[in-house]
Structures are given as structure tokens and as C-alpha cells.
Protein 1
Amino acid sequence: MTRTDLDLAGRALGGSVRAVSDDLFAPVESLIQPAAPVHDPSAFGSHGKIYDGWESRRRRGEGEDDWVIVALGIPGVLHEIVVDTAFFRGNYPPEITVEAVRLEPAADPLSAAWTVVVPKAPAEGSCQNHYEVSDPGIYTHVRLIIHPDGGVARLRVLGTAVPDPRLLGGRIDLAALAGGGDIAECSDMFYSDARNTLLPGGARSTGEGWENQRRRGAGNDYLVVGLAGPARLSWIDVDTTWFIGNAPGEISVSVRDIARAWREVLARQAVSADAHNRFRLPVGVVTDAVRLDVHPDGGLSRLHVYGELLPDTLTGLVARWLGVGPEPALLQEVW
């Protein structure tokens, strides 16, 4: 599996629209939905053609531009902005600018001092417009400015999650995307993405979990999770909710040691379908990555790995967040 950036603004991770200049023709909340935009050429409403996206009215004044502010679901370092103008052909913005800022939770983004991360650039209609971001800062909000008006179907803010480490003390879910975990490797994602298992909240169907195809040969399926950092583990929860006839028969758990070798810490255990399967791990297990093997195959909705970050790990993460020192080695990729 090739590791890819997260859509930090996506609704699935808790992204939300905080403010918008105008969305008369199409509601701005569609901008951050995870599903691809759709289009019905025959659909019209009281304000005109119905679009799956955000569309502002036509600007008539000089120097006026429309904009939207999105709070990221997880703070992070931005790598690429995708402005998807799918189906907007005669009403897309000809140019865009993207700004970003890092704010405390209660701060007002309307009065923030924004940093330009994508200078004013041309955009095309009915396509995905990609813009590289080279700024290394950690941000919590982005502002998309469209010059002067028009429609955008989806906004994707791709990057690396850097959660506020001041919230990571004590026992936490070390595997969660919101805490800094991520999928490092997966044997098979035929039906759905393994990353779904690390999303916030519970799945609403098997499509919101991880499901592999039926294994007909030898071996078994597995996934590897890079944790938020080196940590002392307590227990895991293998959540098979919604997986009734397609849950694993058994699971086993291994961890990676300081020599980068894998060792089993939980021998094969039977799991129940459509249930939370909780297993306590041996005392003193310290690792930065966990491998879950499903025997022989089968899907799950969520995977939670509970434990505590090592004190030095947490100190290094806080130092980076506050900008009081160079990025520690602990923050390098763990796979």
C-alpha cells in the first residue's frame, strides 16, 4: 500500500465550514463532503440550476471576491490543495487564492492574521485543480478565496496530520487518525479502505469500515498501524459492528520492537461478529506500530489501540507544536 495524504478538511475527520461570504445558489456545506460530486442536468430549483457544491451569486462590484473559511478536522502540515470544479462549466471561478492560519479552539477566524499558502492562481472549469503547498507551518483553518465569484464542487486539503499534543496526555486511542495514527500497510482493500477503521465515531455500514475480498489460498489478511508515537499499550478494541457474515474468524496482534522486528503479543483469539471485541495486552508492551492479523480474512468497522505515549515522546511533540525547538527524531515516520 502506498501511503497517501489525509484530507484534513474532510467531513469524515470532523472538518467544518465556519464562515462564508455568500452561498445563494448552492450550500457551502457540500464543499467538504467525502463523496464525489454528482450532477443531474434536469434538476432546477427556485434559485436556478441545482449543483452539488458551493456556488455564490454573481459579483457586480469592483474588488469584491467570495470566500469560505473551513476548520480542519485535524491540524496539520498542508501539502496540496485540490479545488474541484466538477460540472461547473460556465460558472466556475477563473482564479483562486488559499490562505491558512493556526488558531486556538475559541479564536475568531474572521479576525485572524492569515498566511497565503497558494498565491492567486488560475482555475479551470469542470476539473480538479491541483495546487502544491510548500509552507511547512502547522495550520488549523484554511480560507479559499474565489476571484471574483462562481462555483466549486469540492475542496480537498491534503496533508499530514499534526494533532495538538497538549491533548494527548494519559490513556488515548493511539491508532486514531485524530491522534496522529495512520495505516502503514494493508494486505488487501478490495471492498473498502483500511483507513476507515481509524476514523472518529462509529461506522454506519460495512462500507464505512475495512473489508477485504474472500481469501481462497494460503495465508491471511492484515493491517499495520503506525501509532501516534512510541507508547506503552494497554488494550485493543476490534470493532466488527455491521460485519455479520463477513467478520474475521480469529485475530492476532503483533508489535514492532526497537530493533524493528515483529513479535506476537496476543495469540490467535476468536472474535464475535457485529460486536466490540476487547482484549487486554500484556503489561509493559512498548511500541510505535501494531499489526492486526485477521484469520483467514474478514472485515471490521473500527480498530482502537489504547495506551499512553512515552514521556519523552509527548515532550518532543509539544516542543514541535509550540515551536520551541527543532523537530525531534521521534516525529519521523515510524514505517
Protein 2
Amino acid sequence: MWYNDVMAWLLRSPLHGILDSSFMLVTVTGTKSGKAYTIPVNYSREGDTLTIVSLRNRTWWRNLRGGCPATICLQGKTMSGVGTVIEDDASVTANLAAYLNQNPQIAKYFQVTLDSNGQPKVDEVAQTAKNRVIVQIKLGESK
């Protein structure tokens, strides 16, 4: 997709600051092809753990099953990490709810509305979780 190339260029350029708060690049190695794939993704960070929500029908995240290495370009720095994938519905729902609690401003992009307390509606989170996976990347050293 052409816009992935544009996003990758921006995130690697001196202009990366305009996107850094919510976008980063993940590079994974194809388990069958051995080819490196770089994908711009939205993320949330808590300490040294990055959380990414991806559509199940995307394929890039499958290369991180079982705790596989990934290279991250985050805020202009290249870092190594180890990714894991959460796929079962109950765990995806719980993690997506936590993600949206931390980032309620993006709930609308997941077709989730907020209740009167500003919390994502549980039934809507469960519905959207059926089409999603959670990728968590534990950061290692900067390169």
C-alpha cells in the first residue's frame, strides 16, 4: 500500500515528531519467506511494553506468534523487541478494553462508544474484539 511507504518515510525522517505520539514502525521477518516486512502501526506504550491492535485479517502479526523478534522505529530511535500475539477472544476483549480505557479518544475508530463515565461500552468492545488481535512488544536495547 502506497501510504505505508509514505508513513515509513515520515517516521524515519526528521519530521517523525509529527506522528511519534501514536505511530511507529514494526519490522518483522516472514517465518516462511525470510523477508523483512516493515509496517506503520498505531501503538500505546506502558513502560517497556508496546501494545498494538491489529485486524485479524492482516498477516504481518502472524510472524510474531510465539515470542519472535521485531525491530521498532519509535520516536526516531531503532530498538529491538520481542513480540507476542494475543488471539483468543476473551483475552483480546480484556486487552482491548484496557487499551481503550487508556486511550478513550480512539474508541470511535473501533466503533466503540463511551458510557456516561467515559468508559468503553463492554458489549461493543466484545463485538469489535472478534475481528482483532493484540500484539505486545517488549522492548530491548536501542540500536
